[in-house]
Amino acid sequence: MAAANEAQSPQERKLTIRLLVAGLTLFLCYAGTLFIPLKSGLEFGVFSPYMPALFMLIFFCIWIPLCWWGGRRIKQIRIEGGTWVEAQPVTGPKPGRLGIAGVMLRFVGGTVAATVWIIIFGVRVQDWLGASVIAATSLLVCLIGLRVCLRRPETYFRALATTVSASGFLALVVMTWRLGVWTARFDPSSGATAWLLGTTNGTIISILLVNLAAWKRDANLRKHPEKAS
């Protein structure tokens, strides 16, 4: 509810709460379609690895326009209320900006969010080599991205998006390398199924797409600040 607490007016707070409720409801419905089959044993035959991707596509087709509309509407409310200010850097020594600890937390959290899913699957099928390689490469990418950001704080957003995307991409590369081992060890009793693998892949790909879209938008706004919305 931090977003609601940062609202500049009652109208904005009301809209923010509605957006949060709508987003949470949408996410719970989406999560249910992914994980209920894992618990119930429901499968879709040869389509099992692809159904999670379909559900994710439906989710993002609703969620992304909702976020875009909400951001535009909040900006309009702030302009009308005289509280709108242009975006400011998120890092630096000034009050309210991220310090080193905050930057590190976001890099580590983003990297974990992009790779933990596939590491868990590697552990489920007892592929310790694959899981270890993913964890090691993710740690290395995170440290490199964090070092770049700390040396050049103005690159924070791009460095974070690139780090998370690179971690997820390398995790998918390792998964592809170990796929033969993983499919040979599918075991419904441990939850290691084609459905879970499809869910895992779809989650990571979704994170990659969101980060790449955000990186592209940041690059465009740096070239054309007048288009900021």
Record the SSE blueprint.
Layout lengths: L1 H4 L4 H31 L10 H31 L18 H25 L3 H24 L4 H22 L1 H6 L9 H30 L6
Helix pairs in contact: 2-3, 3-8, 4-5, 4-6, 4-8, 5-6, 6-8
**SSE sequence, one letter per element:** HHHHHHHH
Which shape, going by the Cα principal axes? Answer: globular
List low-confidence stretches.
none
Q: How many H/I helical runs?
A: 8
Mean pLDDT: 76
Helix content: over 70%
Q: What is the alpha-carbon Rg in Å? A: 20 Å
Number of strands: 0
Protein model, in words:
Helix 4 (about 100-125) packs parallel to helix 6 (about 155-175), helix 5 (about 130-150) packs antiparallel against helix 6 (about 155-175) and helix 6 (about 155-175) runs antiparallel to helix 8 (about 195-225). This protein has helices at about 1-5, 10-40, 50-80, 100-125, 130-150, 155-175, 180-185, 195-225. It is about 75% helix and about 0% strand. The model has no long low-confidence stretch (mean pLDDT about 75).
Features:
globular; 229 residues; mainly alpha; 2 domains; 8 helices; single chain; 0% strand
How would you sum up this structure in a few lines?
This protein has helices spanning 2-5, 10-40, 51-81, 100-124, 128-151, 156-177, 179-184, 194-223. It is mainly alpha-helical.
